[in-house]
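#struct-queue
[09:14] JT: dropping the first one here, sequence first, then the structure tokens:
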Amino acid sequence: MCGIAGYAAGFGSAEMDVLRRSLVHRGPDGSGSYVDPAAGVALVATRLAIQDLDHGAQPMANEDGNVHVVFNGEIYNARELRKQLAGSGHRFASANSDTEVLVHLYEELGETMVSELNGMFAFVVYDERRRRLFGARDRMGIKPLYLARPHGGLAFASELKTLVNLPGVERELDPEALSHYLSLRFVPGPGSIIKTIERLPAAHLFVYEPGEAELTTRRYWRPPFGVSPPLDERELVPLLREQLLGAVSRWTLSDVPIACSLSGGIDSSAVTALMSEAGYPDLRTYSLGFEEEEWSELPLARLVAARYGTEHHELVLRPSELLDDLLGMVWALEEPYGGGLPSWYVFRLMSGEVKVAMTGTGGDELFGGYGRFRWFEEGRLPRIGASKWIGSRPVRAAAAVASRVPGRWTSDIGRAALRDLRSLRAEPARWHYFERSYYFSDQAKRDLVLEDADRLPATGSLLQAIYDESGAASPRDAVAYLDFHTQLPEEFLLMTDRFSMAHSLEARVPFLDHELVEFVASIPASLRTRPDDLKALLKAAVADLLPEPMLGATKRGFVIPTGEWLRGELRPLVLRFLDPERLRRQGLFQPAIFERFVLPHLDRRADFGDQIWTLLMFQLWHLLYLEERLTAAPTFTWQDVAA
């Protein structure tokens, strides 16, 4: 695992040093660079050594020294590819470096090489003969790649905070990205929160010709939901078990020890069990819980650890610890993020002992674990007050605002909520305002939250376009397609990458092995997930491996109880950053949100914890990246900024 960066923009050694220093946390084991002065091209890499510890330095070149690559990730079929390439006459200098496989595979296949790769990756190849940069990102978006066009050239990096340090990359807030963030708690792609920086989307590649200053991108893969060949239902469970075991076995490829992040849910528990079944020795597991027992899954995690005799480690998180680390987390995330933060602590705990962490990320998206498809199949929204279905929170918030807070505007919001609710019941396949709007619906943003929101595109329309793009007849397939294009890469995988790499730890996600994804996507939607038991198929495939209490346990999100903590230890930050006068000076939000949302929540007259957390996390990001314009992690504390 590495951090990569580079440019074709005529920069010099000072900029190369900026790139390298900003990526040291992603690769503390070494660094290197390559420059083509004639073309003004430079490549930079920092390395976290996982495979071929002695011979994997980057950038890496072919035998002739005219093809160079920088690579972040792991290729899990590298050994098979190496044998094929050696049989075709390619000569390898390393023992088993997957980076060197990329060099020779590019020589052999050019841009079509991406179709041969199984793994997680973001890489850039510089072809010195053709003076061309070619880069790609893995199918699921596990590994990041950001692009910018300073001075009409091109710069790329594993992280956004690398590029904002370059001359010609302005730190300008993108209001459209902010609007979508308020609804979704993450920024959907391909743009970023910074107007001058974009993401290369998952399953995309790019080609850049420095001489022409022309950048082209294209998609090379789509998740095949809705394309279901005939399948014998009787053979499905054993076939799925075989595919799961194969994916986990492939993703344990490493020359260093691997451990498991064990949340206590089905997905991470299945990964732990499958690793044990595959014969992985001396397995270590790491779990996090809370003092609030209703939020903690430590008892279930202990059952799994005990069954497989793992070396088990636990951590109980308290609000004071969150406060101490919050600014560091915001800095590591790079873009506003209002979701759960526990993984930070699990990864930090693991990083003291291992370099590689297996996780269960992706299981929910594959097997319909959120159940959103039920909205469409039943032709209605979940009832107001439902606490678990994503999409119900804005309806609940609008209803609460309309009923508990006096004032003329509340009746407008209430009428909009009822009008759109009726509309959704009449047109069950449309997202409109409330679907997937975690915190603020588009109507709420227009009426009371975001300044000038009328000029911004509706988040619901964005999501509806992706849902329609799937072309799937089944809502279960269409919603899965939507998840794979939004929440999975741009929330969960972004958070997993930034939090693990902040601690120089490689996080792996075997549920997102593309061979496994393609197999599961080929299962008819009615068999893949059920409305009454969302993960029935996955449970059937691993039932003999898991403790019985886990199979019937209620799903819990791996999140922090922020709603209550905002009233306690986090209260000073809320009062500081959502103060009406600060909001007025900032000019982004309506100052009235303090009385409409903040005070009712702090006084326990309403539950607006989700909305307040979303706003607070943006404000902390705004402080670090736009107000303080930091170029390195903050050295001040939360007490300093709350004063």
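[09:21] JT: and here's the second one, same format:
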Amino acid sequence: MSATIRVRAGGRRLPPHGAARRDGDVVRPLTPLSRTPRTPIERRLLERLVSGGPASRSDLVSTVAVELYRDAVRAGGWLADVGVLGERLFAPEVAGALDAGLSVFWEMAATSCPGSCCRG
């Protein structure tokens, strides 16, 4: 499949995962929101942005994936693959939710930020 193929997600047409979004893109929450968050990952991403301010896409995905991993381990996930795979098990789902929530909960833009202004 080429990068020009579009997939349907969240009522909008989005490029395939990773095609149009760069890890250095800065994510900022929108106000007002188009709708309330429906999934635990949407809620977690939005909470992180509201409490911590703008963050780079990669930092936000990593932070939320670590939080979800810790929650899973506390709930007994250390007995299964969660304990072996770590937070990288959750990163693709977090990144997908981040891309799907674009223009609903947050905006994403490329930046020349040196890093200190967009840490989450």
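[09:30] RK: nice, looked through the second one.
[09:31] RK: The chain has a mean pLDDT of 77.
[09:31] JT: good to know. The radius of gyration is 15 Å.
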